[in-house]
Specification:
Length: 426
Amino acid sequence: MFDIKWIRDNPEAFDAGLAMRGLAPQSEALIALDRSRRDAQTAAQDIQTERNKLSKEIGAAKSRGEDAQPIIDKVSESKAAQAEAEQVAAAATTELDNVLASIPNLPFDDVPVGETEDDNLEVRTWGEPRQFDFEPKDHSDLGEALGMMDFERAAKLSGSRFVVLQGALARMERALANFMLNLHTRDHGYTEVNPPALVNDATMFGTGQLPKFGEDLFRTEEGYWMIPTAEVPLTNMVAGDILDAEKLPKRMTAMTWCFRSEAGSAGKDTRGMIRQHQFTKVEMVSVTTPDQSMDELERMTGCAEEVLKRLELPFRTIVLCTGDMGFGARKTYDIEVWLPAQNRYREISSCSNCGDFQARRMKSRCRAAGEKETQFVHTLNGSGLAVGRTLIAIMENYQQADGSIVVPKALRHFMGGVEVIQPLED
């Protein structure tokens, strides 16, 4: 969400930021709409001022024994005129707010300009992809052969893009979530939160899912939204607050089920667990002062990378170009894990600095000690990690020729000492 005053004062910078995203200039139209809104507000105020003067004249006329009816008639007319002006102002305000709410965040200057994922830039890689002496299998083939991954039964229960996990794979998904939460809370300084998975309109608006992305979400008949990520409730934990700047950054993490309609992904990743309607994710959220947020983005990305390092899974980190960045982000790092069966890296985490974009929507500020003025906080979010995709990566990278799966050393404690996942017995 943008401050229209900033747009009025910096129209060239605003349009230049939109141009980085491949969007047409909008400052002129927004400023004209704002001018109409302010003109209507001024007209309503002028009418109110004039009516106050007329009201005083009524009393004066009566005290002099004069006929006050003409003045009373003018007051009645002014009430109607003021109501009309206020309606015009309210309509213009609503239109302006709706337009501002639909405009994506402006990229930081150091974000590479580009149109598609082909224009993203690799920052670093870690680990070497394993060289197999057999043809590596896809995770879905591995899981079905183990008798622990059932897409057909899930389709009977719910439809496509769902899975039933059983036995050691179900346990591994739970173990991964515990491993990630322990790492982020004990080593990385995040506070664990268990937030609601159903939220209201205001909460979805605060982080930018509404109004633009409603079709990507699931909504109950009672009007609740099912969260697409724990970013939504975690970030909104500070909605409407004025925070103590000296106590920032505020770091939170949560493991939740996430729900996405995948409305725009027809034909993409229809096989396996890559793109599901329901999935488990450990999320990290940071709330910072403006001068902390860039360092915090680097730190958060490092926290996500550490999960993969401890699991000994090869990955690369890329910075997204302007055309591939999310709606609310000013800068984003994607971490992509190596999947042998696809012979490519696939996204497993996305860490973004949103600047004050979400804070303005949520009305979340901070104040330094001894200062009267407040400023909007900066918010950041990152996957730490997508649990299902981490499970996939372990299955494919740790598979053996007989279809069994070696459990990474870092995870064995959480798996009760199990070292190798073998097929379920009939």
